[in-house]
Amino acid sequence: MRHVLCFGDSNTFGTDPLVAGGRHPDDMRWTGILQQQLGADWRVIEEGLGGRTAVHDDPIEPIPTKNGATALPIALHSHRPLDVVIIALGTNDLKSMFHATPRVIAAGIGLLAHMVQTYEYGPQCAVPQVILVSPIHVKPGIAASVFAGFEEDAVERSQQLAYWIRQEAQARGCGFVDASRVAEASDADKLHMELPSHRALGTVLAEYITQHYA
Q: By CB neighbour count within 10 A (0-12 exposed, 13-18 middle, 19+ buried), where does 68 fall?
């Protein structure tokens, strides 16, 4: 059995943009699609948390901690041994309170990759491969949505993330997948994926893992 940890935010959690407070079913989230397509030789571990950032503390949502850099070592220790770690973050770092450029956001995601690559897993555990997933684009109208913290400039900055996250992936020897090439935010809330996008993203990640790490 091989293990892949999916460490992300509300789009990894599976927030349903069409149902207030809703969550997509387990087998229809991108993590569930990934599990189906990788098959019985793999176990997909879902670690999605709404509002999670790469490295920022969010004073509006302090409990549980939304800082990915704080939570990641706990997840690595809890779920070891791991063969692959997928880091799918960056959207919440676009919130205006953090004043973060796309390059800074990508650097934070690169720090998480470094944490995975240098963590002390113990003598019986290999260091897992890392895949950085650049997030889907935030859609116009986000500033008028129910999600406090996003201003309209988040739309343009989200479109610039893939370039910088790809640079981090290349510099750190990580895999890279640009989610925005196959998936998109719902028109309903400008932020979260509907089921067709979950299926597309899960499929692309399964193909990437099979091609590079199977």
A: buried
CB of 175 within 8 A of CB of 129? Answer: yes
Predicted model pTM: 0.97
Q: For 47, phi and psi rounded to 5 degrees?
A: -130, 70
pLDDT digits (tens, 9 = 90+) for 149-180: 999 999 999 999 999 999 999 999 999 999 99
- Tens-place pLDDT, residues 59-68: 888 788 899 9
* C-alpha span between 74 and 89 (Å, rounded): 17
Beta carbons within 10 angstroms of residue 182's beta carbon: 17
Could you tell me if 191 and 185 are in contact, meaning their C-beta atoms sit under 8 angstroms apart?
A: yes
Q: Are 190 and 15 in contact (CB under 8 A)?
A: no
Please state, in angstroms and rounded to a whole number, the distance separating the CA atoms of residues 26 and 126: 28
Say if residues 87 and 11 touch (Cβ distance below 8 Å).
no
Residues 33-66: b if buried by 16+ CB within 10 A, e if exposed: bbbebbeeebebbbbbbbbbbbbbebeebeeebb
| CA Rg value for the chain | 16
